[in-house]
Design a protein that fits this description.
- The protein is an alpha+beta fold.
- Among the domains are: 33 residues; 81 residues, TonB (TolA/TonB C-terminal domain, 2-Layer Sandwich).
- The protein is built from five helices and four strands, in the order αααβαββαβ.
- A hairpin with a 5-residue loop joins strand 2 and strand 3.
- The longest helix has 19 residues.
- The mean pLDDT is 78.
């Protein structure tokens, strides 16, 4: 038997048909017993409505009255302090009983201030016994830089140079060479040393 013949078999649909018949029988019984009337009567009853009043907030509590102000008690009586004024006792100067003729001992000797030695004379372009000419720095010569230096040569009494002081300089790159050369100078001995002032000019045209 194929699927179409099996579906057309009335024995297979008997349970479904029986269920439908039973439902129709139950529905007819309910109608006959007045179930539908009870439903209609329930729907016809009047609906009750209630009005809900708004809840009012309680009034705010009033603050309690402030406590009464009490007057401050008067301050206690304090007696003024007693002031005792002492009268100064005036003492008379002692009288001279005896006069001595001895001289007082001599005081310390007066301090003699040593004055600083006077500054030696400054001699401009004083001729030295032995001279070394400052060399032109190579880097400044390549760059074409010229300059001028004024130096003081401090000479001791024996003719040696003790210090070379740069007073003026247009370019400090020349100072080192000036100090190196002038420190080798020699002068004739003299009783007192002096300072020689010399102007060295670095000129590329020379």
């Amino acid at each position: 038997m194929n699927y179409a013949e099996r579906e057309r078999n009335p024995a297979k649909h008997l349970p479904s048909i029986a269920m439908v018949v039973l439902l129709h029988i139950a529905l007819g019984y309910a109608l006959l017993n007045g179930l539908g009337r009870a439903v209609i009567e329930v729907l016809k009853k009047p609906l009750e409505t209630k009005i809900i009043e708004e809840i009012k907030k309680p009034p705010p509590e009033t603050p309690p009255p402030p406590p009464p102000k009490l007057a401050a008690p008067p301050p206690p009586f304090i007696p003024p302090p007693e002031i005792n004024i002492q009268v100064p006792v005036v003492q008379t100067a002692p009288t001279i009983q005896a006069v001595t003729t001895q001289k007082p001992p001599p005081g310390p000797p007066p301090v003699v201030r040593q004055e600083a030695p006077p500054m030696p004379k400054v001699r401009k372009e004083y001729v030295a016994k032995y001279r070394v000419s400052p060399a032109y720095p190579r880097n400044l010569m390549r760059e074409g830089v010229e300059g001028r230096v004024v130096a003081w040569v401090h000479v001791a009494p024996n003719g040696d140079v003790t210090n070379v002081e740069i007073r003026e300089s247009t370019n400090h790159s020349f100072d080192r060479e000036v100090i190196r050369a002038l420190s080798q100078w020699k002068f004739n001995p003299e009783p007192v040393g002096f300072i020689g002032e010399y102007e060295i000019i670095f000129n590329l045209k020379d």
